[in-house]
Amino acid sequence: MTTLLDDFLSHDRSRVMHAVWETIHSRDPETLDPLVAALPQLTREATRLDLGGVVYSNNANLEHALVKLAQYRDGKCWCAVYPGLLTHDPRKEETHGRIRILSTSEPGWSMTYVGECTVCGQVFDIEQGDHHFTWWNWVPRGLKRRRGEG
Ligand SMILES: [Zn+2]
After folding, report:
1. Domain map of the chain by residue range?
2. How high is the pLDDT of residue 57?
3. Environment class of residue 50 by beta-carbon count within 10 Å: exposed (0-12), middle (13-18) or buried (19+)?
4. CB neighbour burial string for 101-120, b if at least 16 within 10 angstroms, e if fewer
5. With contact defined as beta carbons under 8 Å apart, do 83 and 138 qualify?
6. Which of 41, 36, 110 is CA-nearest to residue 74?
7. C-alpha of residue 94 to centroid of ligand 1, in Å
8. Which tens digits make up the pLDDT trace of 76-100?
9. How does residue 51 score in pLDDT terms, banded at 50, 70 and 90?
């Protein structure tokens, strides 16, 4: 039986991307724990691969999967995965019971949602836009933007 860890380390682009998306969407400790244990190895090995990508870089998605694993390891809520990735459809997340949509703007291509994490209650402002495909930008409320740092 092959595991997601095998996929991550396979150096095969389609298998790595399969593992990336499974990791990003999974909330199953049995799936995630072995990956967290191998996180240092994953970071070393998996990031050597050029994964291509037409509109957005697949390597950025891989990086997001590794960040998600670190967040899981550190005990952050599942909803920490939403910001920084444009592929989380709030309606799908609501169907899965992961968020509650509190309100929306007038429906359209360009619209906004207010969603609340059903686990920790974190509220997000979600902007929907369309550029090659529909995307969603999740911004957690109460997070202060740091300007002029660095
Ligand atoms: Zn949460």
Report:
1. 1-76, 83-150
2. 79
3. exposed
4. eeebeeeeeeebbbbbbbee
5. yes
6. 36
7. 13
8. 999 999 999 999 999 999 999 999 9
9. confident
In this structure, the number of other CB atoms found within 10 A of the CB of residue 46 comes to: 23
Question: What is the whole-number distance in angstroms between the Cα of residue 92 and the centre of ligand 1?
Answer: 16
- Mean pLDDT, the chain, rounded, equals 90
Q: How far is ligand 1, taken at its centre, from the CA of residue 78, in Å?
A: 5
Beta bridge mates, 30: none
| Number of Cβ atoms within 10 Å of the Cβ of 14 | 10
φ/ψ of 7, rounded to 5, equals -60, -45
CA 80 / ligand 1 centre spacing (Å): 7
Rg (CA), the chain: 16
The answer, yes or no, to whether residue 63 has pLDDT greater than 80, is yes
Query: What pLDDT does 117 receive?
Result: 98
Helices (H), the chain: 4-8, 13-25, 29-37, 39-46, 58-73, 90-95
Residues in the chain: 150
First to last CA, the chain: 46
Collapse the DSSP code of 93 into the 3-class scheme (helix H, G, I; strand E, B; otherwise coil) and give the result.
helix
